[in-house]
Design brief:
- With about 675 residues, this protein is mainly β.
- The protein folds into three domains: about 290 residues, Neuraminidase, CATH 2.120.10; about 120 residues, YVTN repeat-like/Quinoprotein amine dehydrogenase (Methylamine Dehydrogenase, Chain H, 7 Propeller); about 160 residues, YVTN repeat-like/Quinoprotein amine dehydrogenase (Methylamine Dehydrogenase, Chain H, 7 Propeller), CATH 2.130.10.
- Strands 1-56-55-54 form a four-stranded antiparallel beta sheet, with no helix packed on it. Strands 2-3-4-5 form a four-stranded antiparallel beta sheet, with no helix packed on it. The chain has a four-stranded antiparallel beta sheet with strand order 6-7-8-9, with no helix packed on it.
């Protein structure tokens, strides 16, 4: 027995890869004998029945499309390295955190670096801060970036900035590069302490008379500073000498202050007495409750009515007293026209955290889920509605993908989402009755999906229909190409772990591990299943540990020197691998992927392994490809391509990818959380 790393429970929902499909040419059936339905005569090791002595049928072999399909990227879309461009969301699926106007430019801080809008599209800018989370910009062209480090831009060059004894990236805001205010966690004797700091252009100093609890500031000038705390019923104002308090009453907690003029100040936040809280976590200022809004005229405070049920106010931006925008923790965009606040049409669901306007008057915003959920996006206002750049303008997201050709691709996912790509655009078609967990097909008129409600649906080239209704959740599907399907299920609801569908009936099997989530059928007698604790192979008679896999894993992890007291293939011991993706191009080329960015390959006789170490993977993975050696591996931070010799990695700095499909080495599509669709077409 060898040991490997303990799996993370977040992979319990890990996803299936693509199975074999015909692509770029005619499908080849290696043998055309009809499969034999299990007769229940002999139990397998997993509790099902073997097939009879016939050799069975092999799946159609997926070849690569040899033609070139250099489709231009979507207008305004950002392209990453190696030909990968964003189809959804546009302009970018990078994890956006903050947006600001910098001189005549508009910049966005993303997990992958800084982006600048050139009037038509977003382009990367090289900075010393590689993972910025906060951006400040000023009309002078200066800027400040905060993230894995801090740097100040003077309009020409970046200068690193250091805050002594700093433990984690601070919150920083300011009216100019020489008037910065920060909330920082500093090292002190025996621990750490949250401290308010001020930067005067030369050095940082502690603000000893600052309010004791502060979540943020609105800094207008050295003598005009507002401080607020999300869970307090007041805001405080600094006039350069002393602090004064403005009471918000017993219902309001402030998460943002924006001053249009000394006698025109907007204060937004949440109604702390509201029992009906938003379903999602709060925004960056950690405030919960339905929205509340106040306006201060320099003497008196007035509460401003909001549309019913909106989330807490998390961002404010305005161009005049009669043109003010508000963003909420529920992704709502609200507008003040001088007389009332109304909702603007939007498909956003994330917390709107910042606004910025370009020099030609185009308005953008960044919406962000929070530190632990999903990613941030760049939204745009077209004068009528806010667009989040999602494919098909859908709030759901694709989990799996399959295509018969470069211009016939299906992406399926949450809430029954079916997106179809025709080589030009993605369009939402009819929805399934519940969330879709897997897709497989053999041709344009033979596409299959499995869903949360147990439905096995079929597309005949014209319409979708339900071919079979299982009793519980189905998690993955693969097929042979002659009407035979193999599916995995949640045994607690479906009553089985894996089953063979002959076109009319499901023939179930019970495995020795639970929660299978990936399946690949190379043939009637050659089926692979993976899950959160094991991989099993079916040879037509029994389900068993794949021969040689354990030794391959031992070789892969020998340098790590884990304790030698755990099982490899499955069981409940320490170090269980979460095998969340399987893909193959035939019996002699099967690929498996697990957490730790481990990919293994079976050539029909021997196992080889690859450790793709460029990613910091924290979630499920996906596999797809075409032919014998073009394989794509996707996870929560990027995509790698194997050309038969070596892996090439493209970091994407985005949310989790859960499905990938390829027509060729130069044409592939990955899909995943937050409506991500990333396409390579060269």
């Amino acid at each position: 027995m060898i040991t490997r790393r303990v799996f993370r429970s977040s992979l319990c929902y890990a996803l299936l890869p693509l199975a074999l499909v015909g692509c770029g040419g005619d499908s080849v059936i290696a043998r055309d004998r009809k499969p034999v339905v299990p007769d229940g005569g002999v139990e397998t090791s997993g509790g099902g029945a073997p097939l009879d002595g016939s050799p069975g049928v092999l799946a159609s072999v997926q070849s690569c499309d040899t033609a070139s399909h250099p489709i231009p990227p979507v207008a305004s879309a950002l392209c990453e390295a190696n030909g990968w461009c964003w189809d959804s969301p546009t302009p970018s699926g990078r994890d956006a955190r903050s947006i600001a106007r910098v001189g005549d430019a508009t910049w966005v801080a993303t997990h992958g670096g800084l982006l600048s809008y050139d009037g038509a599209k977003w382009v990367p800018i090289d900075t010393p801060v590689k993972e910025p989370t906060m951006l400040l910009g000023w009309s002078s062209g200066s800027a400040l970036l905060v993230g894995d480090s801090i740097a100040l831009f003077d309009g020409k060059t970046w200068t690193p900035m250091t805050i002594p004894r700093l433990e984690i990236p601070p919150y920083v805001t300011g009216s100019a590069p020489d008037n910065l205010w920060a909330i920082a966690l500093l090292q002190v004797d025996g621990g750490s302490e949250t401290t308010t700091l001020h930067y005067d252009g030369k050095a940082w100093s502690i603000v000893n008379d600052a309010p004791p609890i502060v979540n943020g500031f609105d800094v207008v000038s050295p003598s005009d500073v507002w401080a607020y705390a999300a869970e307090d019923y007041y805001v405080e104002h600094y006039d350069g000498k002393t602090w004064s308090t403005i009471d918000l009453g017993q219902s309001g907690g402030a998460s943002i202050v924006w001053e249009a003029a000394p006698n025109d100040v907007w204060i937004g936040g949440a109604n702390l007495l509201t029992g009906d809280l938003p379903a999602r976590p709060p925004g960056p200022n950690q405030i919960r409750g339905r929205g509340i809004l106040f306006r201060w005229n320099g003497k008196t405070l007035t509460q401003v009515a909001l549309p019913d049920g909106v989330g807490a106010i998390d961002a404010i931006y305005g161009t005049s007293p009669n043109d003010v925008w508000f963003g909420t923790t529920e992704g709502e965009y609200l507008h003040w026209d001088g007389s009332r606040v109304s909702s603007a049409p939007s498909t956003e669901t994330r917390s709107v955290t910042s606004f910025a306007e370009t020099k030609d008057g185009k308005l953008f915003a960044v919406a962000f889920h929070g530190q632990l959920e999903g990613t941030g996006a760049i939204d745009a206002y077209d004068g009528t509605k806010w667009a989040s750049g999602r494919a098909g303008d859908s709030i759901d997201y694709p989990k799996k993908i399959w295509g018969s050709a470069w211009n016939d691709v299906w992406a399926v996912g949450t809430d029954g989402l079916r997106l179809h790509y025709d080589g030009t655009a993605w369009n939402v078609t009819t929805r399934a009755s519940s969330g879709i967990n897997g897709i497989w097909g053999s041709a344009q008129n033979d596409v299959w999906t499995v869903s949360d409600d147990g439905s096995i649906d079929h597309f005949d080239g014209t319409s979708w229909s339900t071919a079979y209704q299982a009793p519980g959740v189905l998690t993955a599907v693969s097929g042979i190409g002659n009407g035979e399907l193999w599916v995995t299920g949640d045994s607690s609801s479906s009553g089985f772990d894996v089953a063979r569908f002959d076109g009319n009936t499901l023939h179930p099997y019970t495995l020795d591990f639970q929660s299978p989530v990936a399946i690949y059928a190379a043939g009637t007698r050659d089926v692979w299943v993976g899950g959160t604790s094991a991989v099993r192979h079916f040879d037509g008679e029994t389900w068993s540990d794949p021969a040689g896999l354990e030794q391959a894993l031992a070789n892969a992890y020998a340098p790590i020197h884990y304790p030698p007291d755990a099982s490899v293939g499955g069981g409940e011991g320490f170090g269980i691998f979460p095998w969340s993706a399987i893909w193959g191009s035939g019996p002699n080329s099967v690929w498996l992927a697990a957490d730790d960015n481990l990919v293994v390959h079976f050539d029909g006789a021997h196992w080889s392994y690859y450790s793709i170490g460029h990613f910091d993977n924290t979630g499920a993975v996906a596999l797809g490809g075409c032919g014998d050696h073009d394989v794509f591996f996707a996870s929560d931070t990027g995509i790698s391509h194997f050309d038969g010799t070596a892996w090439t990695t493209t970091p994407t700095n985005s949310a989790l990818f859960t499905g990938v499909w390829a027509a060729s080495a130069n044409y592939a599509i990955a899909v995943g959380s937050d409506d991500q669709i990333l396409r390579r077409s060269e």
